[in-house]
Amino acid sequence: MLALFFEWNALKTTSRNQECERATQARMDVSLLPDYLCDIKALRENIRVIQYLSLLAYETLFDKNKEIKLTFSNSALERLNIPNNVIKYCLNIGILTEEQDVSLPASSSQQSLFSFFHKSLQEYLAAVYVASRLKEMLKSLKLFPNYDDDLADVCKTCLRKYFGTCKTVVDILDQSNVLIMLCGLEPQLLTNVSEYIYDVTLVDKSAVQERNTVPQDSFSSNHHNLIKDIQMCIFMCIEEAMSSAKNVHTPVYIADIYVSHSTDLLRYCEYVVSKYVLSIDLDRFWCFMKKTDNETVYLAVKHLGKCDQLKAIKSSISDDRINNEITKILDTNVFTLETVSFLETDKKIITHLVSILPKMQQLTSLQMKGTISDRIPHDVCSSLCTYLNQNTSLNHIAFNIYSEKFCMVSCNIDNLETCTLSIENVDMMKQMCNCLCEADKLKHLELYAGFFMRSYKTVTKNLTRLLPSLVSLSSLTLWDFSFTDNIIARPCDIKNLKEITLQEVTLSLPTWCKFIDSLPALPQVATVETFDMDIRDGTILEIRICDIEQKAAARQYVREKTNLFRVTRDDTFGFCFTTKKVRL
């Protein structure tokens, strides 16, 4: 694309422009251009312009003070010593554009703002700048005998120097196009680029959180957005390197692998250094996979069996062949895994996982979700309960499994911070409340009411008693419960609660009003989100028939208290609001 600007200009050049263009084409060292550009005549003839443009592109793109519009003023051109004839030439051929700064007052002198024809062109030229700097560094290195030994160090130094401002995963993704294009211009940098990204993902808080966080449900994809984007960035770096150089077999570092039927993982797996992979996350949309997609995922998972330093593995696959490979991965990484999540999986893999849990000394997060049609044996459930009672290292647990025989819920709460449970009956609810009442470190509680949960009054009473004892609780999520009274009976004692989510909850209008009236007394400003709620007066019936008028009255009760609440969502599916702190 860059060559086209110069080639088109050559076709329309008149003798009147030749003097200006000769001034921009002063002789400079062509060898400093990336090899790919040296092969194109139009670019060789404009090397001086390209070197100035690449400097301008890099400096303005990596400027921390740059505006979102990616425009730059004449002062930036002066600071970088860009000659006026080069600017004029680039404006003439269309690489740069000029506009007036409309943000200035009409009375002031209008100042021009410049920008590149397109951001992708700016990113490409920035990559050209870094590639030319690398060639300059390597040119001096070739004079020394230990060239091959020092090559890797020079490449690392180059990346640290020119990408040193990229300190987070978000920074990396912001400049991902530059990194991808750079690998196309200089394939020898592929390993170093991937290693640089790898080092950032090791310490970036958002990346670490995604790696260690269990998904909310089998169709949740928000938790691995960064992981997917970083993986795509690295895979595109490989793609660019392969397109520019034959027989590329350089190692690539990647911390987190997201296995999807839509990504040709096998194409890139041969480059990945297995021992540095820290997490494997299998696509949650397995139910939509075709037979050929299933085979692709199977072969990818089989290849990932080489990974032996995993910290996290997450899957919702129910395919027998894939689960057999996952079982092998579990056994290989039994001493390193910190996070394990299996959703919508069968009893075979849950049974195997429970059998090796005592060996998982590093485990801090455990999630299991089975299917009601595939109940696990009672002895497996008992073994799981024994493990949970004895283990003191678990910070996060999430269980929704079905046993052949009822198994009481009990676990060690010494370091428990997050708890997600499916409550199948009243006895289980009582046991859960008794277990968690002294969980001083518990911050997040999420409960699902099972189909056979019927004693609504007892459930309400147990939950009302539990909440004030959870001194660190900051978020509460309740699904499918029916309440006979306000669960926030002692709001002043629930000192850290900031988020309340009610999904498909049923309660009467008076109970709702009591709940709303208690919220301003919470010590913290609270966000309340409700979805598909049933509001009705009188006895709560077995059949879910929502009273539209009562539901409207419930929302109006909140809306009219403008001094206490701020409504943030009000539509068919959801009603959300936040409390306002009232100054006394």
Say how many strands there are. 18
Task: Characterize the main sheet.
Answer: 13 strands, mixed
Give the class from helix and strand content and strand pairing.
alpha/beta
Distance between the termini: 65 Å
Strand residues, percent: 5-15%
Low-confidence parts:
218-223
Number of helices: 23
Spatial extent as radius of gyration? 31 Å
Query: Overall pLDDT, averaged?
Result: 85
Provide the spatial order of strands within the biggest beta sheet. Answer: 4-5-6-7-8-9-10-11-12-13-15-18-17
Shape: globular
- Structural domains: how many: 3
Helix content: 40-55%
Please provide a brief summary of the model.
The chain is an alpha/beta fold and 584 residues long. It has 23 helices and 18 strands.
Essential attributes:
single chain, 584 residues, alpha/beta, Leucine-rich repeat, LRR (right-handed beta-alpha superhelix), 3 domains, 18 strands, 14% strand, globular
Can you tell me about this structure?
By secondary structure, the chain is α/β, with parallel strands linked by helices. The chain folds into 3 domains: 2-143, Orthogonal Bundle (Arc Repressor Mutant, subunit A); 163-371, no CATH class; 408-584, Leucine-rich repeat, LRR (right-handed beta-alpha superhelix), CATH 3.80.10. The strands form 3 sheets. Strands 4-5-6-7-8-9-10-11-12-13-15-18-17 form a 13-stranded mixed sheet. It has a 3-stranded antiparallel sheet with strand order 1-3-2. A two-stranded parallel sheet has the order 14-16. The longest helix has 23 residues, at 119-141. The N and C termini lie far apart (65 Å).
